[in-house]
Amino acid sequence: PRRQRQMCIRDSSQRDVHAAMGRYDEALAAMRELLEIRPDDARARYEAGRLLIQLGDLAGAEAEIRAALEARPQLPDAHFNLALIAEQAGDPGLAEREYRAELERFPGHYQARANLGILLVQTGRPAGAEESFRKLIEIGPEQPVGYHLLARLQLEAGRADEETLRLALRAEELDPSPRNRELVRRVRAQVN
Fold it and tell me: What are the contacts of 82-85 at 24+ separation with CB within 8 A?
């Protein structure tokens, strides 16, 4: 058991180093060694799935992440990564279900909420997107993304008003990037 534990620590460290260097195939090999020792390790199976995403093996990644979820249903980010896989595979319906599953388990998952809203815009459901972006602002009031996305949604729907301008200005205040400055300029042009 002690030797086995030492090997797990070494393999885990190797995996982290390889992944940080972008050597995902080597990181995956280290993860596979770890899974040989601990085949029921849900976290290791999940990490193997994430590495497979990096390597472009979406089917393998999905299988690993689903196996991890079977062992540990409350595994953070698992449904989020399944949603990313579904989007890459061109299945927006499955992606939406997975984002919603992640948000059901972890309502404050900022990126899942943002991605769900963007997906709803892309699939022609602006009301759902607006709700998602408003919740995004609630959970991350100091993050510019929610303000930007909601202001852009209103602008593109032809509904730019004083609220839209406040949203755009808040996005610019939090992140004075050219993208947010341009949004403010566009909203001002419509509101005035």
Answer: 83/112, 83/115, 84/53, 84/115, 85/53, 85/58, 85/61
